[in-house]
Each structure stands twice: as structure tokens, then as C-alpha cells.
């Protein structure tokens, strides 16, 4: 008899589990549930639709019917799974017709995460937004199109805040970026962040650091900061973080870890071997330290989906850990990071060295050569790479890709000069910036 495999949650994780399962098993009965209207969409593309870079909303979406047909599966949207009976292997779910139950043989949880939205005094819900779902995106887009706001405050300078400040300003709004920390983008160090801060201010963004939001007043158009300073804004976007959606898992007796995410083994199994979990809701070991991390990125979710599906289908291919490799664009700058930063290494008590290097992304005599800045964090004794960061207008993505690969391969920094990287004047220099920073890092190691 065909196995019944249930998937709770869509987007990057759930849809890819269905695809991988069907690739290897033509007989299984695969069912996807999502409490939202959309089963698969590009979270990362949403800021660019708001900013009119992506012109068609449908380009971000994959319809439930297409998923159902392509993977010969059952897809239920606007359907919330409310309980898991692990003893009898039953799911309870609620849709427009009421509450129902269905049996499962294997269950995959991909419930994702939710944007944090503190309940500030004086907040007008019609003027304050988060951005994590298609509904969030639509709400921002509709407000801008309908009410024609002239100004926007963005609270939080992480990935969402950085991408939104560019796209909101592209619509002609005056933007104020408010960040509680002493520099933007806490995943990079202050010297790297200073390049970002200078750039966004050159673009006309008002930047307020070491500032927190205390409350709203004047029907939500005045933001009262912790310093006592008032900021006027017609609308506000809260980009202060996310939290994993673990309520269903916890209610079912599944173990969560120290980061707050669902704890899984290297095959993405929870403490119940018939229930798997992946994506933004789980914690996984860091590839360098083995310590648990909660990292919400699309790339790891895709890989975890393949790992879980393979194990369900009888193959033991372990997930080897998370690096947290990420890149984003803000105006003309690209910013990339992989591995651990100084704050994480300090918290773990790891002894490390750091080195930075700034050069041109390609041969200086070839037109358009822009600066690129690299940073490495590495073991002070043997040169093992712990983390890398890159900032610049050109060539950040390819340097990040090389350094992320080096980190994954446990390549020590003194071997970076040996990498034979492609060279022609429009692309690099005979010694690529990655080679050069490798020389600089090697010089800091003991003889």
C-alpha cells in the first residue's frame, strides 16, 4: 500500500520536499497543508516587487494547482493543522468546512517563522507593517498605492531593513532607518558596516544608530525613540527579527533546542523518528563549531528538504551543518557573509585572528574598477577559516562564493594564495583579492 506522507507548510521547504519525494517515489500519497493562501512563493523577491523592480506579482508565486499537478500531490491552502496525535499517527486540521483528521506514515514539518511585531503603545496597525509573507507584501504595496505616503521609518537594519530601505526610497518616499545597535547589519563587523552606513546616507537615507523605538503617538505618525527624539513618518516597517513557528511541534511533544528552533538530527528527524522538520523552524549544527544555530535562509532549506526526502525514501545522506552564507544588495553595494563573526567567536571563547584587505575588484586600468573590501576571521594557530565578509560595488558575490567554499572544505587561510582563480582585466587581477588576503592572513600565523 502506498505510503501517506504529509507536509505541513510550504514555501522553500515544503514544496521542495514534495518535489524530491515524488522524484524517487511515484506511488506515495503526498499531501501539503498550508494555513496561508499561497503554498510556494519567493520570500526574497518581495522587497523588489514593492520597489517595482519585479513588475509582476505572479512572478513570485507558484500556484497550488501547479504544485499539485507537477508532483501528483494533494495541496490544501488556507488549511491549518492544529494537532498531531503521534501515538495513532493522525493529523487534525481545520479548513473552511470544519475540523477533520487524516492518517500519516511520515510527517514533515516546515512551518517556517513569523516576523516579530512588538505591541508598541500608540501603534496604528494600519500604518505599521512587517514583511515576511505575501499578505505582508500586498499590505505594504496597497498602502503605498492607495494613500501615497511621503515618508517611511524602517526599524531594524538587518536583511529586511537593508533591502526595504532601497526599495521604499525607489518609490519616492523619504526614508529614516532606525537601528538599536551601534552599526547596521550585525552579521558584519563595524569596519565593514561603516561602508554600508556611508553609502546609504550618500543615497539620502537618514540613519539613526544606537536608537530604539519606545512608542507611537499622533495616530501612529510620530515615532518616539528611546532617546526622547521624535521622528515623523507616514508609515513604519518593523524589521526587528523573526521567531521560529514551533507551537505545533511543542504541543505535540517534539523537542526544541537552545536557539528556540525544533531540534533535529543529521537526517532532519525530530525526537519522533517518523516526524521530520526543516527550514526556518529548526536549529542545526554550525559547520565550524558544531554548536546549534537558527539560520533562516532559502539555500539551507532547499538542502534540508533534499536530506529529509532522501531519508524518507531509504537513503542515509546526512546534513553536514549550516554556514549561514548570505548576500544582499543595498543601493549600489553588495554585502556578503559566511561563517561566524567576531561576536559569535567571542561568545564561544574561540581564539582567532582577523585580517582585512581592500583592493579593486578588477584590474585598476580597466574602466569601472570599483573597490571591494574583504575580511577573514581564522584560527590563530592553524589558520582554519571561521568566517569571511565582503563589501563592495563589484565582485562581492564571486569572492564570497570562493570563501564560502574554502570554509566548507576546511581550507586554511595559508592555502588561499594557492587558489588558481580566473583572471582577465575586466574580471580580476593576476593575484585576485582572495589570493592577496590569503597572503596577509598567512603572515599572521606562527612560523
From TrEMBL:
Keywords: FAD, Flavoprotein, Oxidoreductase, Redox-active center. Its cofactor is FAD. Gene3D superfamilies: FAD/NAD(P)-binding domain. Residues 327-428 form the Pyridine nucleotide-disulphide oxidoreductase dimerisation domain. The keyword Oxidoreductase applies. InterPro entries: FAD-bd_OxRdtase (IPR050260), FAD/NAD-bd_sf (IPR036188), FAD/NAD-binding_dom (IPR023753), FAD/NAD-linked_Rdtase_dimer_sf (IPR016156), Pyr_nucl-diS_OxRdtase_dimer (IPR004099). The keyword Oxidoreductase applies. Residues 4-292 form the FAD/NAD(P)-binding domain. It holds the Pfam family Pyr_redox_dim. Belongs to the class-III pyridine nucleotide-disulfide oxidoreductase family. This is FAD-dependent oxidoreductase. It comes from Lentibacillus kimchii.
